[in-house]
Specification:
Blueprint: E1 28-29, E2 41-45, H1 52-65, E3 70-74, H2 80-90, H3 100-124, E4 128-132, H4 135-145, H5 150-161, E5 168-173, H6 176-182, H7 197-213, E6 218-222, H8 227-241, H9 243-259
Parallel strand pairs: 2-4, 2-5, 3-4, 5-6
Antiparallel strand pairs: 1-3
Bound molecules: thymidine-5'-phosphate.
Thymidine-5'-phosphate binds near residues 76, 138 and 141.
């Protein structure tokens, strides 16, 4: 998927930085970089409390400093339709009786909208896309943890994303006790976070298995370490795999230094 030439980004000339805005399709940062190869589609995965949202923000801040055009999005959600589905899945007062099958279909519905409305158009405009969760969450949560039929989950994932596959996926791996301690902070009650401990053990195990099965795409990172160290580790992997992105970042920084 590398090597495609992107046209000049179009869209609102200056929108709010996605790091400081709620997740939304309008949270875009646009800078113009002409005739560059397509920038990568990067996803972050892991169980609750693993720190993925922190590292999504840190990566976005790095790209912003380097003036690389990027879009941050999340799942479920990221579009007006997706955010309504998110509310239904997580917080709607009547969602307690939701069946695993309904849950699977709702995640797939949110994703298929996000891919077509937001992710693909952004990649085609030459924007780097960073997603907080994507289809691996469904494989792990609905497939392995909820134990829905694996083939059906795979087929639905494929139907929802089409050819829009992440170039790289970071799985932040932490043990269940660390995850629980990070989730102690007061938060809005979320239906998805009311599961027994074995559920999260299955989630963790399934992510680790996925990383073994797809070593070219998935990078397993120890999420329990110092956040600065984790951030650097993630950036090293990105800059070694996507040399164009790294060289654009470097040249922008040098350009800025020469103007100081
Ligand atoms: P988050 O805000 O931590 O990303 O919460 C999203 C919740 O939804 C989390 O419990 C994982 C769950 N989830 C699934 O079960 N399947 C999916 O496909 C996705 C995207 C999320």
């Amino acid at each position: 998927m590398w090597g495609k030439r992107a046209s000049r980004p179009v869209g609102p000339p200056r929108a709010r930085c996605p790091c400081h805005a709620p997740y939304s399709t309008t949270g875009l940062l646009y800078f113009t970089i002409d005739l560059m190869p397509r920038l990568p589609f990067i996803t972050f995965e892991g169980s609750e409390g693993c720190g993925k949202s922190t590292h999504v923000k840190r990566l976005a801040a790095r790209l912003e400093r380097s003036r690389i055009p990027f879009l941050v999005t999340r799942e479920p959600g990221g579009t007006p339709i997706g955010e309504t589905i998110r509310e239904l899945l997580q917080f709607a007062p009547h969602n307690a009786g939701m069946t695993p099958e309904t849950e699977l279909l709702l995640f797939a519905a949110s994703r298929s909208q996000l891919v077509r409305e937001t992710i693909k158009p952004a990649l085609e405009r030459g924007v780097c896309v960073i997603a907080d969760r994507f289809f691996d969450s469904t494989t792990v949560y609905q497939g392995a943890a909820r134990k829905l039929d694996r083939q059906i989950v795979e087929q639905l994932n494929a139907f929802a994303v089409g050819d829009c596959i992440p170039d790289i996926t970071f799985v932040l791996d932490i043990d269940a006790a660390t995850a629980r301690s990070r989730m102690q902070a007061p938060r809005r009650a979320d239906r998805m976070e009311q599961q027994p401990a074995e559920f999260y053990e299955r989630v963790r195990g399934a992510y680790r298995e996925l990383a073994e099965r797809e070593p070219n795409r998935i990078v397993l990172i120890d999420g329990s370490g110092d956040p600065d160290k984790v951030e650097n580790e993630i950036w090293e992997v990105i800059s070694s795999r996507f040399s164009t992105l790294a060289s654009v970042a470097k040249s922008k920084i040098e350009d800025r230094k020469s103007k100081m």
